[in-house]
Amino acid sequence: MSQQTIQTIMHKKPITVECQTPLMDIIKVLINSQQTQLPVINSSKQLIGMVSIIDCQKALLISGYHCDMPVTVDEIMAKDFVSLSVTDELSEVAIKTQKSSDNIFPVLSEGKLVGVLKRVDLLVHLQNNLLLCS
Question: Per CATH, which fold does 6-133 belong to?
């Protein structure tokens, strides 16, 4: 496998939501972007969490059942997630992300979000490497 870093295939302009974003706005962004997860950032553009369609689904079920007030991203986002470094080699990333069920991984440089790696892009990269072997 070639020794490329994550920078070669990551998306450098990730779609994000800010903390305190209302649930209905998060859902609109998820639907419009056709992504299953979004990075959550604070006002300093630092990554503070990840929110998924599953998180939103759970929140809607609970809110609808109890007729609760709408929640914000801070209340439903995951604070435990796999993040990657902009200098990580793709071969290492393929191993590191293997046990995760996430499909989007935030990429950090000096603690700031600089991109995202989509699992499908990693899969394409791995497939292309295999084709080079043939």
Answer: CBS-domain (3.10.580)
